[in-house]
Amino acid sequence: MPRMNVMDAVINVLESEGVRYIFGVPGAAILPFYDALRKSKQIRHLIVRHEEGGTHAADGYARASGEVGICVGTSGPAGTNMITGLYTAMADSIPIICITGQARTDALHKEAFQAVDIVEIAKPVTKWAVQVKEAAQMPWVFRRAFQIAREGRPGPVLIDLPIDVQKQAIDYDASLDAPLPIYRPAPLQSALRRAIELLLTAERPLLMSGGGVIIANAAPELVALAEYLQIPVSPTLMGKGAIPEDHPLYAGIVGIQTQQRFANAIFLESDCILAIGARFADRHTGQLDIYRGNRTFIHIDIEPTQIGKVFHPDLGIVGDAKLALQGLLAEAHDCTPPRTPGAWFERVQYLKQTLTRRDDFDDVPIKAPRVFRELNEYFDRDTIFVTAIGLYQIWSGQFQKTYKPRHYMVCGQAGPLGWEVSACTGVKLARPDQQVVGVVGDYSFQFLMEEVAVAVQYRIPFVLVMINNTYMGLIRMAELPYQMNYEVKLGYETDTGQTFGIDHCKVMEAMGALAVRVTTPDQIRPALDWAVRESNHRRLPVLVEVMTEAEENAAMGTRIDQIREWHPLPEMTSTTI
């Protein structure tokens, strides 16, 4: 059997697993890995400016491609900097592998330079965290890491590599090694039959598609089931794109922040919910007793411990989302002929037409809904949008239109500020032929704005649209019993009363990128046109900074447990349809 350096064997494993990009920062304790990596003709390495940025780039790549994202760092703070990215991937079920260097094994207990027990630190935010102490285990640890990251509910893995182990040689024959199989649990058919029976006996059923439908590439099966049974579909925020938002059966997003008023109203009138690959997050459910109500809940998830975690469903089914939807459709065919639109369908259309929100404002300063109106009208259905956390994410969830799976990337549960720029880099590498647009906030952008330099260096083009209110608006709007008397403005006021903060256009230009500032609604469309043209022509990130109203309210009060207070609705009867 051939004898080789163990890191050469690791690179062989990475190549056979389909790895094309690695995001990392070299350092002394990981140099043997990098020495082997430089020999690869398949894997391209991108030097990021912060290890957290590397994890978010790997995360964005994984979301867009469906493959495992890879990031690398040295020992000590490199690993601790990755924790936020690991947590984000864990929360949103994203398969990434973080590789860290480590001090020598004989120095780990001696407080050696940059020696930290990163495995113990990472365990709560990973599916598996492991330190490899024996070189002969290395190929199989990496094979297992890919299997764990992909299998079941996907998620992150951390592999810690002491430098003395990286330098050893092992016997390894790449021709005798291959990726490990990925098990996809099939749901019990009798349980699927029961689910169909519950849907058929309901008067006002809903299908609720979560991120699990996107991950399983099961959107076509979801739409086929909805159309066959004529059941409206309400995606969660992580399931956005599972059904086109102009589809007649699209029923909007339920929630307390990223939501539509008509979706909350539709949900409150429903009597049976089939949730697939959703975890009933608190920003989705709001007040749980009102959310649960007297509705029948069917919960399908690939992870058994997700079922019953938030509340006990009437029927729980463990299974892969794609296999479950295929099985449900087969059972539906066996139980009933194709259904035609009825009273519930008409009611949903009525609510969608009447409980809308304005986005045609001409005000100056610009109102955020107008920005999203322009985005929706300017970009086509193939555009991929990326957004992170904050007031602009709430606006995005309420107004951004999405038509295809893996075309709306959002960090849902963890919500790390600064996620979007690095994520755009990863998304664009995964989908080089599609337009990528990152919707960012001024405060979030400043967290990891140095990662723009990565996209400039490697000529990765995308457009950033900044909703800049120079104000921590979400904190001001939060319903908290505290006096918000500290400073939340992010800029300074001029003699004319106008607020300015960091000049983001100059920041972009300083890193070799391009930018333009917009202050009136009529400037948005020309700015987008310029940004797209220049970004694609020069192969650079381009920023459109839109100055918006500082204290604008995102109407988060229209949450699910208050919808009737905001807009009392008649009960569904034949006379109201």
TrEMBL record:
One of its GO terms (molecular function) is acetolactate synthase activity. Residues 389-546 form the Thiamine pyrophosphate enzyme TPP-binding domain. The keyword Cell membrane does not apply. It catalyses: 2 pyruvate + H(+) = (2S)-2-acetolactate + CO2. One of its GO terms (cellular component) is acetolactate synthase complex. Residues 192-328 form the Thiamine pyrophosphate enzyme central domain. It holds the Pfam family TPP_enzyme_N. This is Glyoxylate carboligase. It comes from Chloroflexus aggregans (strain MD-66 / DSM 9485). InterPro entries: DHS-like_NAD/FAD-binding_dom (IPR029035), Glyox_carbo_lig (IPR006397), THDP-binding (IPR029061), Thiamin_PyroP_enz_cen_dom (IPR012000), Thiamin_PyroP_enz_TPP-bd_dom (IPR012001), TPP_enz (IPR045229), TPP_enzyme_TPP-bd (IPR011766).
